[in-house]
Structures are given as C-alpha cells and as structure tokens.
Specification:
mainly beta, 295 residues, single chain
Length: 295
C-alpha cells in the first residue's frame, strides 16, 4: 500500500489559524481571522519552502561534505530534517508536538543519536515554536539549527510591496556578511543596510542572496508597512539572523539561526565549524521563535 501522508495538524486561536505538515514539521499556512494568508504559499516554480526547519546544518558545506573525526559525510543545503517525516505527539486545539529521532538513514549522513522535538502553540495573535535539540548518545554531538519562515511580501493588507520594511528592535550598526555563488560565507564584511532601525525592502538588496546579521543585537523585528497590521518575529536566543528572498519573488524570509553556512575554504572538523554548538551526552539546546500579528 502506498504511504499515506497524515493530514496537516490545524491549530486555532481567536486571531489566527495555522497548519503544520508532519513532513519536516513545517508550518505550512498561517492565516488571520479574515482567512488572509500571511505565509508564503510554497510555489515550487519560485521556492518550494514555506517555513522549513534547518538541521543539523544551516546553509551549505564546502563541497557538500563535512569531516567528523576520521570520517567524511555529505549533507545537502540546510540538512535533512526538512525532508523527513516527524512523528506527531500530543495535539490540542491550540498546541501540537512533533519529533524526529535518529535512525539508520540519518546515521549514514549524521552519526549521532539526536532527538529533534518541536512544539507549536497558538495563543491569541501569537504562534510560538519551541524546539529542543537533544543528544541521546554518550559522546559530544555537534549541530546547528535554524528557523526559516517565509512571509508574504506584500502582506495581504492592501499596501504595495515597495512600502514594506523590517524594523529592528535595536539599531544594527555592525557590518553584515554575504555569501558567494556557491552559498559559502565570504571573508568580506559589508556595511549594515539598516538605517534608524529600519531595513527598507528592495530587490536590489538580495542580488547577492541572503543578508546575514552575525552580530545582531535585536531580539525581535517588525515586518510590514506604515499602514495596516504587521508581523513581529521574536527570537530571544538566536545568535544569527538571516533575511532572504529571490529578487522579484513575493516572499521575505526572516530566519533566526543557531548556526551559519561554511566560510570559503573551510576544511576543519565539523566541531570547529563556525556556529556549531556541542551538546554533551543527554544534554539539550532549546530555542524559540514567536510570530505575532500586531494590529
């Protein structure tokens, strides 16, 4: 019998509805109470993602591979979790839990006994994602993790695409990082495009792909225009923030990361990779992202 995908899990609050796909534990729709879509629709002709979870790497690896001790493994961009089916745990009208555990397939590309658990909670105008990355083995486990939600640009509130901006909680004066055509982090730092806490969204910003804030001070941003509701994305513990779109596309991704793509020329052990965290046996890292519709 063909594998039957489980239905999406639907969550509801007084202000929002959300649907999560067990494939990748991916947030797949987010709508306001007027049923307007806030999340990108995953059009595969442009970008098939909606809000993938990035694990156990963020970005790409030099030559698509990494070295861990005496062994070498291959991983695709952003790792494998987004293409794996999570088990569905406890579900209520406003909460849902998903888990992905190491198995024989994952050991071929990532030789660690991990558990990746994601809890979605919808309360009023806020959807909160809380993720736990746990080392269920006995040896130190290196990993990275990232959120990658893509929002409608423009938002469905009647304002033109050109009026949209991202407003940071703090002034972001530190230089930013960029990547090359292979997706690798360049050594050059670039002046911050943020002025008076605002990043005015323009396709020209993304001609060289993602903007990487690796010294981000803000713990939240507001996305939208001067008129109409906005979205607040909060990331209380993420050391990196990526902002990305494809020029001309009708989405903008606001991506809190615990990790970063390989830098050009990196050839060290995976444990030495920039942005990788190490978990001792039995330990876990918890990370949170919240999306709030602000009237």
């Amino acid at each position: 019998m063909a594998d039957q995908a489980p239905p999406f899990v639907e969550l509801r609050s007084s202000e929002l509805t959300a649907e999560i796909d067990a494939l990748g534990a991916q947030l797949s729709t987010l709508r306001d109470r007027a049923a307007r879509d806030l999340l990108w629709d995953g059009n595969p002709a442009v970008w098939s993602g909606r809000a993938p979870l990035l694990f156990p790497i963020v970005g790409v690896l030099v030559n698509g591979s990494y070295r861990c001790g005496a062994e070498t493994f291959q991983l695709p961009r952003h790792g494998f979790a987004r293409g794996r089916r999570f088990s569905i745990g406890e579900v209520t009208p406003s909460t849902a839990e998903f888990k992905l555990n190491a198995d024989e397939a994952s050991f071929l590309v990532y030789p660690f006994r991990f558990e990746l658990a994601v809890r979605f909670e919808l309360v009023g105008p806020t959807l909160t994602l809380t993720t736990s990355i746990r080392n269920k083995g006995d040896t130190d486990m290196p990993a990275s993790f990232g959120y990658h939600p893509g929002f409608r640009w423009p938002l469905p509130f009647g304002q033109p695409r050109t009026s949209h901006f991202i407003e940071f909680e703090s002034e972001e004066t530190a230089p930013i990082r960029r990547i090359d055509s292979a997706g690798l982090l360049t050594l050059t730092r670039h002046p911050s495009p943020v002025s008076h806490r605002r990043l005015t969204l323009d396709d020209a910003l993304f001609q060289d792909d993602v903007l990487i804030f690796d010294q981000v001070k803000s713990r939240s941003v507001l996305y939208g225009s001067d008129d109409g509701p906005r979205l607040q994305v909060s990331f209380p513990d993420a050391p990196y923030l990526g902002i990305w779109t494809k020029p001309g596309a009708h989405f903008i991704c606001i991506e809190p990361w615990h990790g970063i793509t390989d830098r050009q020329g990196f050839s060290g052990d995976f444990r030495e990779k920039e942005g990788v965290f190490l978990l001792a046996g039995g330990d876990a890292l918890a990370t949170t992202m919240a999306i709030t519709l602000v009237a």
